[in-house]
């Protein structure tokens, strides 16, 4: 087994291994060339009886693991959305792992709880969130770190469901929950992430998709019409999930139109800004968050675009009592002396699991080592790289831009059939020099180009475009099938 002396030595070695991996990542094919089941053939069928050495394990990293890794932090990775990575966050994760507390309550580790509350206030102030979302020392709202945006969406839906059921029961004593639940209906844009629909499945409620406009945004009038039709049919609208920065095209639902409708109908409005939210720390993008004052809850992922390694999904609520009211269970073994004091939050009441890691350390390290200006600079650089790629696409008459480029995502395609674009994407990904994923917009098969890695530079954008254009040329010269 490993003693502290060997841990010191091996820990330093691992930092070197990680540094070498990240420094040389662009030499590796961005997408793995393996078939399903490749790994099982490379390892024994059972765990070893006798201990093995650390050297043997390290040797197997290259042999077993690396051939099957999609290198998300390669500057040639342009798929999905970014996943954040920075050295301060990695160091903080090491400390979190070493402290190893399970911070379900204040008493379980006071620093774990208190730093989280303060970091969510820091971040809320960077975003210029309304005061109601901040905990401060006397506020009714506050922030919490969830694992993912999907969790935040589900937590908000379940809290909204509980709030609505309690309200109806208070107004109609004797009404059973079983009579109410089948009538509940939740809403989201037809561009919302699949996890929103999944939250409805898990929450056991109807979820209806609101048709988006020609900019792929959900609008007030479309929501109003659906609500009125549903109320006439005897349903009870209770939750709307608005998206700022949709996954297919980075579109923005019009929350300034949608919010007042939700407020007047007593519908919980949750805002999912998983990717785009990081950009709102820049004054020039903050207007995209106008209307957040109407929301009951707001969420985005610092682990996407704010240099805080996964997992770290920041969620704020205006009234923490609404969340706690939905999930609170207080067995004797979890009680402690300070739990009713105003300064103390027990985060187990704000989430689905009981246990939680010391994730706020990552935020503390990153915010201090980059500063607000450094974080803003990072966002602006990615946006300018996306604009550079957009201008390259626009300069080639064979291609078209499929959605407005607002932040770090460019949606584009070859003018022509969906089949042609499917073939283009397959050829691009088969070469393994860059990695892209597609989406559907208004019936068209579209290629998404997201600026993802912390180390992406103009030269990588230029390389990617040259590569795409060359493959397109080959494809267009081939006889049509």
TrEMBL record:
Question: Pfam family example for this protein?
Answer: Pyridoxal_deC
Domain of life of the native organism: Eukaryota
Q: Which GO terms describe its cellular component?
A: cytoplasm
Note the InterPro entries from the entry: Aromatic_deC, PyrdxlP-dep_de-COase, PyrdxlP-dep_Trfase, PyrdxlP-dep_Trfase_major, PyrdxlP-dep_Trfase_small, Pyridoxal-P_BS
Residue runs in coiled coils: none
Enzyme Commission number(s): 4.1.1.28
Q: Which residues carry this modification: N6-(pyridoxal phosphate)lysine?
A: 304
One GO BP on record is:
catecholamine metabolic process
Name the coenzymes or cofactors required: pyridoxal 5'-phosphate
**GO MF entry, a single one:** aromatic-L-amino-acid decarboxylase activity
This protein's UniProt keywords: Catecholamine biosynthesis, Decarboxylase, Lyase, Pyridoxal phosphate
Tell me the route in metabolism or biology where this protein functions. Catecholamine biosynthesis; dopamine biosynthesis; dopamine from L-tyrosine: step 2/2
**Assembly and interaction partners:** Homodimer.
Q: Of which family is this protein a member?
A: Belongs to the group II decarboxylase family.
Q: What is this protein called?
A: Aromatic-L-amino-acid decarboxylase
